[in-house]
Queue: 2 jobs
Job 1
Amino acid sequence: MDAPTTPRPKDQLPQPRKQPVQARSKALVDAIAEACLRLLEKEGEDALTVNRIAEVSGAAVGSIYQYFPNKESMIAAVYERLLNQESEQLFQMREQLQGLPLEAILRQIFANMIRVEQRLHQLSHAFHACYRTALHLGLWHAPQASREEFINTTWLPLLQMHGSQVQTDNLPLAAYLLGQGLREIIHSAVHDVPQQARSPEFLDALVAMAMSCVKRG
């Protein structure tokens, strides 16, 4: 199933051989991606063979190869579906955070970041580690934006909106530490010490670190 591929930047997910156009072909690709998701969640990545995917999805082996050149491209299709779902949930969560104090907002944001990282990691440890740059939920629907642009349009305005609760004079630095530094800690913990990453103490520590970033030393 795994044909040789040209090395690609790790900020881009592997792409299918071609995109479905008609409703029937879209339904076929959806069925294949759904089958891959079920296999990854219930049986693990070793079960992700073309014959097993054909059996679960009902698609012919030839049809699978028609759209997906290798296993990595099929795993990418699964991650795309999940990140689309998570993007919708993130938008809804942001609406619910209005009016809350900064510490409560940060707690919910980091709790969601931990949950998403765990979900993405559990599907395929190797894929998640390899394409971590592309699997950035905040940038998912704005792939043209740099991390700096992302931080300056999300985290920085958040701190500015809660200026009465922020004591640091260096808001850009605080926004970077919250938006990028703590994200790196979450990613590393989910990979290196998954049990610790699931603990309430880990979330408490993240919130404490975040609040220390917005206060004067």
Job 2
Amino acid sequence: MNCIHFDEIDSTNKYLKDNFETLENFTFVSTDYQSSGKGRENRVWLSKKFENLLFSILIKDKLLLKKFNVLSIGTATLIARFLELKGLKNVSVKWPNDVYVNDKKICGILLEGNVDKFLAIGVGLNVNQTLFDGDYRVNPTSMKTELKEDVNLESLEVELFEFIFKHINQKLFTKKTYDFLNSHNYLLNKKVKAGNITGIVNGITKEFELLIGDVPINSLEILIL
């Protein structure tokens, strides 16, 4: 595991996209502040300096690249598991790339890259930020808000990176992940819309796709109705 840290950068994902050829597999790039952070659908990711974890992971492993369509939800599951180990309650995973706590968003994930060569997994985890400016589609929360105490960012980063590095492999897509997703599925029994498909979420398939009615979905934006 190779770790690179910046005080400030435009985007950790962009750094990996610009430098993937010279960086090794499982390089972690973190920063105290992103000037051009973004989420899915080109939405802006806002984060106060020195208060949250902002990082990206470079994936060049061919076996994992073949799992690109479910790597986002797999990473979200890892982070949800980690948050439970840190003492957070009511943690859930919202398809396809968010982690919620008590119905509020605590973490977002963005995959970018070329699936034939590399992927950059961008992660924004709210840690010590308690005041969130701007308009949000879903109310945000943070570890500090939920735990009622400050969290040491440096120690947390080390622990989380080691946890991800240990588990982000082919074993990520096993029954343990499948069972966790099904028991922590934020969308379960909710009516949603994905493209032209509308229905009730019935669970997660064995291929880690979201099941709307009897239709498996893997990469579309999901709207709760």
